[in-house]
């Protein structure tokens, strides 16, 4: 994904400062997974929140959250906050009975690219 994102023109990401927003990356990731033929949904809503992206691969479901940081030192904080929010708000509740993984994608404003991705299996799925 990092290579794929790095191929996007600087002007496209910089025009109107789009690359500063989570929705920019979420849209690109939605197109990435969709172009691969995966079942993908954006803003899959529960009663308490909506997930950025949900990708289904067979009996596995990946609930993705996209976070943007200003500097690389904020990555750990972004991961901790995102995973906590996803768990507390029950983003994967509707997928009980399937193998569910919470995934957080952290991108950086300055470099306009992916910094790191982490996934955690959701227990009791």
Q: Given the structure, what is the number of helices?
A: 4
Large-scale geometry: globular
How much of the sequence is in beta strands?
Answer: 35-45%
Low-confidence stretches: none
C-alpha end-to-end distance: 27 Å
How many β-strand stretches? 5
Q: Tell me which oligomeric state these chains represent.
A: single chain
Biggest sheet overview: 5 strands, mixed
The chain-level mean pLDDT equals 82
Helix % is 25-40%
The neighbouring-strand order within the major sheet is 1-2-3-4-5
**Could you tell me the radius of gyration in angstroms?**
14 Å
Succession of helices and strands: HHHEEEHEE
Assign the structural class, choosing from mainly alpha, mainly beta, alpha/beta, alpha+beta, or little secondary structure.
alpha+beta
Keywords, separated by commas or semicolons:
alpha+beta; single chain; 5-stranded mixed β-sheet; 4 helices; 125 residues
Explain this structure.
The protein is built from four helices and five strands. The two termini are 27 Å apart. With 125 residues, the chain is an alpha+beta fold. A five-stranded mixed beta sheet has the order 1-2-3-4-5, sandwiched between helices. The longest helix has 14 residues, at 22-35.
Entry summary:
This protein has 125 residues and is α+β, with helices and mostly antiparallel strands. The protein has four helices and five strands. Strands 1-2-3-4-5 form a five-stranded mixed beta sheet, with helices on both faces.
């Amino acid at each position: 994904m990092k290579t794929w994102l790095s191929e996007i023109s600087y002007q496209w990401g910089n025009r109107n400062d789009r690359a500063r927003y989570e929705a920019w990356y979420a849209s690109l990731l939605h197109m990435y997974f969709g172009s691969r033929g995966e079942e993908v949904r954006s803003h899959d809503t529960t009663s308490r929140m909506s997930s950025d992206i949900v990708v289904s691969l067979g009996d596995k479901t990946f609930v993705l959250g996209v976070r943007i940081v200003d500097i690389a030192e904020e990555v750990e904080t972004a991961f901790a906050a995102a995973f906590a929010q996803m768990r507390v708000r029950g983003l994967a509740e509707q997928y009980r009975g399937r193998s569910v993984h919470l995934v957080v994608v952290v991108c950086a404003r300055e470099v306009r690219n992916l910094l790191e991705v982490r996934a955690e299996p959701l227990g009791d799925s």
